[in-house]
Structures
1.
Amino acid sequence: MAKIQKPRRPKAETPRGFRDYAGAEVTERATMLKAITDVYHRYGFDPLETSAVETVEALGKFLPDLDRPNEGVFAWQDEDHGDQGAWMALRYDLTAPLARFYAQNHLSLPTPYRRYAVGPVWRNEKPGPGRFRQFYQCDADTVGSASPAADAEICMMLADALEAAGIARGDYLIRINNRKVLNGVMEVVGLLDPAAPEAGEAARGTVLRAIDKLDRLGETGVRALLGVGRKDESGDFTEGAGLGAEKAEIVMGFVTAERESATLTCARLRELVSTSTIGLEGVSELERIGALLEAAGYADRTRIDPSIVRGLGYYTGPVYEAELTFEITDEKGRKRQFGSVAGGGRYDDLVMRFTGQRVPGTGVSIGVDRLLAALQAKRGGAAEASGPVLVTVMEKDRLADYQAMTAELRAAGIRAEMFLGGGNMAKQLKYADKRGAPVAIIEGGDERAAGIVQLKDLALGARLAAEIETNEEWKAQPAQIEAPRDGLVEAVRAMLARGA
Amino acid sequence: MAKIQKPRRPKAETPRGFRDYAGAEVTERATMLKAITDVYHRYGFDPLETSAVETVEALGKFLPDLDRPNEGVFAWQDEDHGDQGAWMALRYDLTAPLARFYAQNHLSLPTPYRRYAVGPVWRNEKPGPGRFRQFYQCDADTVGSASPAADAEICMMLADALEAAGIARGDYLIRINNRKVLNGVMEVVGLLDPAAPEAGEAARGTVLRAIDKLDRLGETGVRALLGVGRKDESGDFTEGAGLGAEKAEIVMGFVTAERESATLTCARLRELVSTSTIGLEGVSELERIGALLEAAGYADRTRIDPSIVRGLGYYTGPVYEAELTFEITDEKGRKRQFGSVAGGGRYDDLVMRFTGQRVPGTGVSIGVDRLLAALQAKRGGAAEASGPVLVTVMEKDRLADYQAMTAELRAAGIRAEMFLGGGNMAKQLKYADKRGAPVAIIEGGDERAAGIVQLKDLALGARLAAEIETNEEWKAQPAQIEAPRDGLVEAVRAMLARGA
């Protein structure tokens, strides 16, 4: 007889690299995003929500992690698309879709077009600890303005947004650099010929990656990577850019060009790229951005920092990065800096991919989950959700009465629910505890006959359990009181108030 | 010489079947969702946001449209997943992910677990007019309670949510049925044997689809589909369920069993399924739901309606549907009913797929885009966004001064932006118009010397252009006024107030 195989049960698991958010995790993020987008809105930016799916062709290939299959995106072939099965993909950021949207609608949009966008993006990367394949971004961009005032505005808005989210002034710094200055340095050391800008791209990439590692490897490490290469502690060798000592010094001079003020830093940069037209143009832009930020009173929160590179390949001018400067203690008790929570820059060529016409754009992206984690770390933990008032069910045949109590509370704006599970009072109070319910209402036959209800102050009970020494308070504020049935709402309000 | 082919430009197009939302479309939906989820929250429901991506295995196959490739979902094979390339997919609703989440976390979750969720879902369907492949859902579910009180609560909450969103009482109706009663009817007509519930599934499906068409085909059409079949106007023949006249009459009796009150309807249903245990169980549930809704004062907004089927295969008990009852006039001037904007029901087997244990669940899903469209149709159009105050740029070298004005306005809570494009004053005012800016600020050299600014009331200008007869008002309220530079904020506030 053939053995009948039982169908295998599906595994109840969040897919690898993905995660779920529940309760306060959802509301806390929503509150933070509301604070940020309120700032964006006040700056005149309009909301935009593009579809999560784009054609692979429209998304382009701008992810730094190009050695992955599908270029780092989640992609599939669509049977319904016009030209015989176009490839579709989940967006990997909010900028590429903006470029598509702007190119598609530029005739009806104002110029410049300021927009903000909030939503998940997806990366087909190898998942790892703290590295997720779906995460939120919160972007603001100005498309259609080449003015450094647009870059300055984004930096000011980013500062205001971070403060609105709860990062105090002094706890963050916005570092600003310019790709044109970087290109100027490349020109000076012979890695970029303005007449043939394609040549030397690989070597320039090696230099950029070396600069980006200054934090981690220090000046010696970067110098090695600019030259012949570097062997790390494990013995692995990373090939260098092959610059001679003199040229490497020029790059190092650039990386360490930061001075006390934007003006002094720019003066130093001007010396370094004095023979490069593009480099000098970049320094001029930095000077204008610095002057505008200073005039607006943001000099204390912003800094021209030539060591900022930013990964994405599409930046063409100013780039910026917001770094949190306070230390937090991680789960293992180690002190560490939180690092970058937002970054962006100018990408004058993105829209041109579609229209053939150069459209200047500049914008910033906030790493929502990182910023939220920073706020939680600073506060010393995630926010606690407060549960609803629980109306318990003593007599199963009187559900309509308990439901009426619950409805009364809700009508008064109090979050409330009736117990819908099975079980005796002990089980119901255990449920109330798990729910974080501040108050439980009890009405049995005796109470009903007497026209009263019992109110149990569960929040007080929890506090008392935590602090046994306040026993006097317990007596003064009994954890359970009686109230007239027709005074239910007032009694619950009073009990909630004493817990507040 | 080989011809160098220019790379093809990507098309700037929203992928077919997808759409973008901009400006007021985004904020209007957000406002509506906030109103709805505030109601859910007050009912004690907690927010949950699961990942957009699930394994195909976890999602299961519950979509009605099974003749599509990939079972109607967007799916791809993942290289990173443990067991050699698991198939991943975008969620097609918010209920399947809830079942997965609950099965995964049930030990730490309270029982019952009430949760709400808002977000996009994706369907790999053939796109068509008004039929999108990504759309929002807004769900609320109670998992872990078998009580009809949980179903009644969902119906009450749905009514409250619709009213909070802006649908007036009297403009909607929540229709309730029970799959068990339907199964009871199937048993009575011989299409369901409780001892062998798998047999006859195809015929039952045909009957369900026939019932679902009552609105469109009327009683005669449904009767034909219950019997031998039906030829439509185009001559196409749809095969019927093959019931004899007597049995078809029993089904028709069920479909038309609605009476003036829930009590009378339930009494009629009881007669129809008197020989079926499961059918009588279903009627009892409907009676309890009806009684609870009546006690809570929702009898005027809810109705037991045996013709409600609901498409999804996973419902096992009560099902409900919210229908808008007002007429709207469509773009072609035709009056039509808006129809269903929300639906749901009880699905006691969903979690069992994962755990092997039956976990009762019940919940509702609001079709966000449909509800929003209904609100707009009722109001006679989408909401207009109000633009920011525009600070124009008369002198390019004084950006910092204009920026300071903009910052002053923002600090006072007024939405404001500085013009960042190129062009003369005419072009800047044209931009202001496109932006919907209510006020434009102008400060040239003369104004600066005199310590004043010019304020242009663009909102008033627009109103005057629309109503020429109010020319007297024009004189009384000049569209352009002068204000002292240090009284900028007050002057703008006053101008905004007169437009309000």
2.
Amino acid sequence: MNDDLILLGHGSGGALSHRLLDDLILPVLSDRSAEQNDAALLTIGQSRLAFTTDGYVVDPPLFPGGTIGSLAVHGTVNDLAMMGARPLWLSCALIIEEGLERQLLADILADLRRAADGAGVRVVTGDTKVVPRGKADRIFITTSGVGVIEHSLAIHGGGARPGDRIILSGTLGDHGMAVMAAREGLPLDGLRSDSAPLWSLVREMLAEAGEALHLLRDPTRGGVATTLKELARQSGLLFTIDEAALAVTPQVRGLCGILGLDPLYVANEGKLLACVAPEAAEAVLARMKRHPLGERAAIIGTVDEGEAGRVRMRTVVGGMRMVEMLAGEQLPRIC
Amino acid sequence: MNDDLILLGHGSGGALSHRLLDDLILPVLSDRSAEQNDAALLTIGQSRLAFTTDGYVVDPPLFPGGTIGSLAVHGTVNDLAMMGARPLWLSCALIIEEGLERQLLADILADLRRAADGAGVRVVTGDTKVVPRGKADRIFITTSGVGVIEHSLAIHGGGARPGDRIILSGTLGDHGMAVMAAREGLPLDGLRSDSAPLWSLVREMLAEAGEALHLLRDPTRGGVATTLKELARQSGLLFTIDEAALAVTPQVRGLCGILGLDPLYVANEGKLLACVAPEAAEAVLARMKRHPLGERAAIIGTVDEGEAGRVRMRTVVGGMRMVEMLAGEQLPRIC
């Protein structure tokens, strides 16, 4: 491995990404705590805002359940929602490869607009660049989002407390496997990205839980495993999850089996992990199950004192194994 | 020309860009007036904010006077400043081609950080994606910015009034020609990008002019000519400029001559155009000349009633000619 060059794995969201972050990216940020969360907190007058950005380079740009356009809306509004912020405004910057079919661009932009309307956000500013053929791959979209925090809770990635229940809002890996199947021309058999805007679900959870809601995070790049590992580190606690509580669709399980992938490391784009105080967990779970995006929500584990930053999993056969971060890159360009 | 494909000229900032905007991009924006200006206006509580985004794809990523990192800061903070907003926060999304030299990335990010510090803004959130070799060109950076408007003036691209004096803050085309020379390996002979953050100059102008400051815009893609044409259209007025009042360095004039380019269409990244009420124009100009970024500022023309949206130029030989928008793309990837 050449340490002098940037590798695909540096964009995986896993261990290599974290090293690049620590070495090169975090020193650029003016507030080093910001990069640990999905969005930065801004205070203006009496208002608390959340501000976030993500670049989308998904290949292919159209996949079952969405396009790079809707994904660029959902991913960014979800980053705001994970701070407990109501998404309000989006910016949208396009980098287009010369020769892109105009109709494809129109379809992507229409899907982006539909997704924004569905998420209740307004696309208020944009930019378009075109680069020569061969200098980009059809289309990349970077969206930034601004949302408002209308409560006094502090919801962030380091907020877990001992005793908290860990809730996952649904099935693992749907987005990653749908994109993978579309890219490789594999049979879809009902595979579909779960790409969706999570604010309306978060709003329900906030209303139910209030101060009992300690942490939210959407498991995107690196999947649930990598995300849990990040959260355990940020919170300085031990997370224990039950394999038996994890839901995976037969389609995702089947394709993962064929490709030798672990669904625990495959991205979602419409799911969330939450840490909730034990006394409120069942009520929050019940409320989530009444929401279309939380029908398959489950308590998948608990937060404990113990070895800080570790995640362990009770396997279905009764063993206990450590869960580590994604090491390299198993699925490039899924978002 | 194939109407079904996106062409390089669609990213030029000129006539083709405007057509793409009208046909495909504006329908996506929730507020169609936003795209006419450099930034969107947001109201939150008692505060007025400006919000903007730009993607940077400059080739090469290092050029005399800057890098894609500092350019990504200056371009975006200037879009805020052109709305009369004080730039406060930036987001930064990197799309990196696999195989980029780590040292080059470090240099670019260090330059980005220096530029942010110099402009008084904080980089508060970011994202990094890596795409396979050949799917991008080294590095693209998209920054978004949030600024605060601390006055009650309405400064926008449609704000010009009959009688206004048009002020240009310095020489034409410095950024575009420096990038061009660096890309083509031409002798630089003192060519240097003018990439710079303009807020401190705008603050002086606001202090001097108050309500007499009607319009601000930085002439980037498409140069001063295309920008004036946009502003004349937005304001619904006739702009008349004096060729003799336009400043061009000998280096820019020389290289433009060799390449057959018109400096009036070559981008700046550290200059601004302003429309100022006649009674305040001389005082504003004097104040600008005392600022390092306005030393070569000049009144270059006037705003008149007349054919709405037209720009005409009194040539040095005494003729009058119409100025049109950049038609295709004369200098791709200069920002």
